[in-house]
Amino acid sequence: MLKGTLKGTLLVAGTTSDAGKSVVTAGICRWLARQGVRVAPFKAQNMSLNSYVTADGAEIGRAQVAQAQAAGLEPTADMNPILLKPGGERRSQVVVLGRPLADVDAMEYLAYKDRLRAVALESYRRLRAEFDVVVCEGAGSPAEINLRRGDIANMGLARAAGIPVVVVGDIDRGGVFASLYGTLALLEAEDQALISGFLINKFRGARELLEPGLDTLRELTGRPVHGVLPWLDGLWMDLEDSLALDNRQAAEPAAGPYTGRSLRVAVVRYPRISNFTDIDALAAEPGVTVRFVSSPAEAAEVREADLVVLPGSRATVSDLDWLRRTGLASAVAERRGPVLGICGGYQMLSRSIMDDVESGAGLVEGLGLLPATVEFGTEKVLSRPVGEAYGHRVAAYEIHHGVVSFDGEAEPFLDGCRVGAVWGTTWHGALENDAFRRAFLADVASAVGKDDFTPDPGVSFSALRERQLDALGDMIERYADTDALLALIENGAPAGLPTLPPGGAS
């Protein structure tokens, strides 16, 4: 046990987005927590449309929530002090310490950098004072040299706080040795001095085949590979952004024919889909097949699925327009079977949307499947509601500007409404409540004439998530050089690490 004996910090960077920084950080947190270490995760700046509401009403990235759970902690805003939520090609909402600050484009954001750097560093210092170890996650790649001057999440943080850095490379993409070497070589000398080693992630095969490459990388860089981490099948844990959906869906089996004991769910993947982690609990149910659809060619899937889900959206009006342009809106409207709208998806199912806040589009016609109207407010609703449906307690969270009202034609449903087999709710995370989810799926099955479909009463979504986190902790313990990681956490970057020519960018 390391309880009370280990003090320090580490930053997990990556050669690319989706290299595995989030899961490696979670794995290190779980491994340390099991050793009795008081460890906390930290990501200074996160760009993601998957977010969560903390117990005190702050909005942070879902990945940091999973990492906090790995550490056995309730998440706080300090774990992700800066959250960027893209709302268009060039604009993002800036959320600072859990509260929205401004909507800016990429150039306007530069004006906030000094202020945000101070906020991030103060959050980091608070965590360092409270916990024995802080495991930091970088953002994107530290070798984005065009952004280095304003960086607050990668080498900018590492330099400011003297944090040793390990760089994760995704071997499944190919070119991992070039990516690791090139990432280091592009950095200026002072940044290179903190890059203390590498981790290779998502490896499938015999490690012996890698050994010559590992040896050469060590010779060329003067830095060791601290582990070759395996590909983990079935890993879905709180994915950071919608790019990761491509990898997950590619691994899923093709949706097969309907059977009496299976339910087929089609989830519409709009350009600005948010909080798609709401679907994870459905996908975890035996006998439920979940597919994301995003093209006109998949309209038949929308018409024929047992259940269609319209998930959250960061840009409701824009994504509704996209839904119409692809023909998927017609496929939804023509259905006679169950439809579930969550947050932005619920808003799309309404009769009308008045939006002078998010899109500035004014009055927009909705899909009209629910007798509801939406009006966007300037204040964002952030809450952790608790209610009841199908006789079961439901705990959830809310993140939205659009306020929905419905008339007496509809039956109340989780602060939303229901008409026949169409449900709408503003609540994220409701499907993670096991008893409610089973009752909802049984209702869907009944609506499509599949009365012999029975949800598995033994499925616990929270237990499944814990098993995933344990698997990540096991991965670090088994495949990483944990002694080397402990030395970095406690002692910092080794002195005298060589600088690669040309010494990076200024």
Automatic annotation (TrEMBL):
Molecular function as annotated in GO: ABC-type vitamin B12 transporter activity; catalytic activity
Known pathway: Cofactor biosynthesis; adenosylcobalamin biosynthesis
One GO biological process term is: cobalamin biosynthetic process
> InterPro entries from the xrefs?
Class_I_gatase-like, CobQ/CobB/MinD/ParA_Nub-bd_dom, CobQ_GATase1, CobQ_N, CobQ_synth, GATase_3, P-loop_NTPase
For whether the record's keyword set contains rRNA-binding, the answer is no
- Catalytic site positions: 343 (nucleophile), 428
What's this protein's family per the entry?
Belongs to the CobB/CobQ family. CobQ subfamily.
The task this protein performs is described as: Catalyzes amidations at positions B, D, E, and G on adenosylcobyrinic A,C-diamide. NH(2) groups are provided by glutamine, and one molecule of ATP is hydrogenolyzed for each amidation.
Q: From the Swiss-Prot or TrEMBL record, give the protein name.
A: Cobyric acid synthase
**Which organism is this entry from?**
Planotetraspora silvatica
